[in-house]
Amino acid sequence: MIDLIDIEKVYQTGKKSSFIALRGINLKVEKGEIFGVIGRSGAGKSTLLRSVNLLERPTGGTVIVGGDKLTELTEKALQEKRKRIGMIFQHFNLLTTATVRENIAFPLRIAKLGGSRIKPRVDELLELVGLTAYQHHYPKQLSGGQKQRVGIARALANDPEVLLCDEATSALDPQTTDSILSLLKEINRRMGITILLITHEMGVIRAVCDRVAVMDHGRIVESGTVLDVFLSPRDSVTREFVSEVSDAFGSEAIDAYRAQGRMVRIHFRGGQTYEPVLYETVRRTDATFAILQGTVSKMKDVPYGQLIVELRGSDGEVDRIIEELGQQGLEVSRL
Ligand SMILES: Nc1ncnc2c1ncn2[C@@H]1O[C@H](COP(=O)(O)OP(=O)(O)OP(=O)(O)O)[C@@H](O)[C@H]1O
């Protein structure tokens, strides 16, 4: 649905100086998925997101959305295409002197829809985001979460195929963040809208995304399914993000144990998370095990678990257990 090919962005910062914000970005977002881009401040996330609808025109490369090469469209054709690419912002960007209803109707008026079609569409959108009772309020009378709901309704007004989310929950408290993320998931599921979001919070990625790309200094340093990247991060930047949401791992207590050897980390995915796979495997040997740390959580809707255990048995038994766990599809790494 979104194809970014060899995207470069160079900002001219002075007569003779320039800054490279994006370097050779290649990214493909499939139809119907929620794709997250994560990175530290200054990594280039906003520049990348704004390249998708050409709010920021790349200095090199090709942007394709829904089969159309945006980088080759005329200004008029681009305006038309942008109607099918919704966008929401960290600070909502609402019209402060217009009511909730007028804010949502705004893109429909721009699209020159007749009044008789605007009213039912706005009613539908108000209902979708749960703001029917607030339709005559002004933005200053709303909470942050409600303002973002207006932003979402407005972005969906023209029935887009893609929704771009620019740090959409960064200005919200954790509870409101959860409710906005749930709304985005519902919109994606019910309407099949492809969502591309940028964030600096791994929690956001874990809650809603199918796949993720990690950015650093204008490059994508790692990408893959959220589960893969989360459970086996390769790049140091990724590892830092992952440690933010899994602070239980790698604690000093575990490090102290490490000296004794035979410690393993086991990753469970999906239905396996709830099965006694470890117990059943160890039971078939003379070995035993001690659980040192464990967690069960969810990555979007997929359950996953991570256990750190010390296997107590002979070298041969320990090798056999690790091999058998692997054969059953568990990821096992010696610590
Ligand atoms: N108009 C501009 N002129 C010059 N440099 C710019 C311009 N816009 C962005 N930059 C620089 O490009 C880099 C990437 O900025 P960008 O806003 O895309 O990063 P980001 O990852 O979204 O970070 P943040 O979350 O802080 O916005 C930064 O170093 C920024 O200073």
Automatic annotation (TrEMBL):
<protein>
    <submittedName>
        <fullName>ATP-binding cassette domain-containing protein</fullName>
    </submittedName>
</protein>
<comment type="similarity">
    <text>Belongs to the ABC transporter superfamily.</text>
</comment>
<keyword id="KW-0813">Transport</keyword>
<dbReference type="InterPro" id="IPR041701">
    <property type="entry name" value="MetN_ABC"/>
</dbReference>
<dbReference type="InterPro" id="IPR003439">
    <property type="entry name" value="ABC_transporter-like_ATP-bd"/>
</dbReference>
<dbReference type="GO" id="GO:0006865">
    <property type="term" value="P:amino acid transport"/>
</dbReference>
<keyword id="KW-0547">Nucleotide-binding</keyword>
<dbReference type="InterPro" id="IPR017871">
    <property type="entry name" value="ABC_transporter-like_CS"/>
</dbReference>
<keyword id="KW-1278">Translocase</keyword>
<keyword id="KW-0472">Membrane</keyword>
<dbReference type="Pfam" id="PF00005">
    <property type="entry name" value="ABC_tran"/>
</dbReference>
<keyword id="KW-0029">Amino-acid transport</keyword>
<dbReference type="InterPro" id="IPR050086">
    <property type="entry name" value="MetN_ABC_transporter-like"/>
</dbReference>
<keyword id="KW-0067">ATP-binding</keyword>
<dbReference type="InterPro" id="IPR003593">
    <property type="entry name" value="AAA+_ATPase"/>
</dbReference>
<dbReference type="Pfam" id="PF09383">
    <property type="entry name" value="NIL"/>
</dbReference>
<keyword id="KW-1003">Cell membrane</keyword>
<dbReference type="InterPro" id="IPR045865">
    <property type="entry name" value="ACT-like_dom_sf"/>
</dbReference>
<dbReference type="InterPro" id="IPR018449">
    <property type="entry name" value="NIL_domain"/>
</dbReference>
<dbReference type="InterPro" id="IPR027417">
    <property type="entry name" value="P-loop_NTPase"/>
</dbReference>
<feature type="domain" description="ABC transporter">
    <location>
        <begin position="2"/>
        <end position="242"/>
    </location>
</feature>
<dbReference type="GO" id="GO:0005524">
    <property type="term" value="F:ATP binding"/>
</dbReference>
<dbReference type="GO" id="GO:0005886">
    <property type="term" value="C:plasma membrane"/>
</dbReference>
<dbReference type="GO" id="GO:0016887">
    <property type="term" value="F:ATP hydrolysis activity"/>
</dbReference>
